[in-house]
Task: structure prediction
Amino acid sequence: MNESEDHKSLPQDADYSGPLIEVRNLTKKFGKKLVLDKISLSIEKGKTTVIIGPSGCGKTVLIKHFIVLQRPTSGQVYFKGRRIDDLSERELYGVRTHFGYLFQEGALFDSITIAENIMFPIRQHFKGVKWREAEELVKAKLAMVGLDGFQNYYPANLSGGQRKRAALARAVALNPEVLLYDEPTTGLDPIRSDIINELILKFERELGVTTIVVTHDMKSAYKVADRIIMLHNGRVIADGDADHIRNHPHPTVQQFINGQVSEDDLAVLRMSGTLATSQFLPRDFQ
Result:
């Protein structure tokens, strides 16, 4: 297999000891809406970082900047000490081979088999792949997630948990250094969610990947995280290990991790109202 030449422009592991990923004063706006507000943070190699926060706070937007699926309004993104947010799409082609991305809904292609889904990124980034090599690689990746034997199935034939696992097999097809998970347990029951948690831990342990997880699931966050970052209104309001987050004094942090509605929201919900005169009643349909 011949790898993209841009892949070689990044420093080798022996030559680089700084943060694997770094963002500096990262700001993102969509029109007038401010989503990320001057965020600066770094991601350490070989650790699992979990990003939590309420819906719409910018979690997914942030991790998309790590792989430059989104470009900052201002600020910079670095991978292995090299600035990447200002690279062309062609230059990013090789950089992205270092990353695997598990999308929230899996994002498998419905019209092709599971084996073909896993082969997709390999064929995109490498030329001259022999079918026998590809077949063995697909088998190995599916075995890692407990799905060897499902090669000729289509996504529609799989359960929700199986689709997530197949998508995860595709995410590790290129043996990435970094795995990005966007809400990996959403829509799964507690047992299937814990299977995903175990796979996250397995890949960190056996593949040595650096892991970044976006989630609302605090049980999952506490289980897999070396570090938890909480975003609120586009800013980092808490950053530390699980014990630090559990005991954090910020009321917004406590409300989120304990699933508590704020007093302001409760006041709105408790407001009394009247039935509108145009409201239909059950007897109107009898």
Remarks:
- The first strand starts at residue 21 and ends at 30.
- Residues 5-261 form a domain with the Rossmann fold fold (CATH 3.40.50.300).
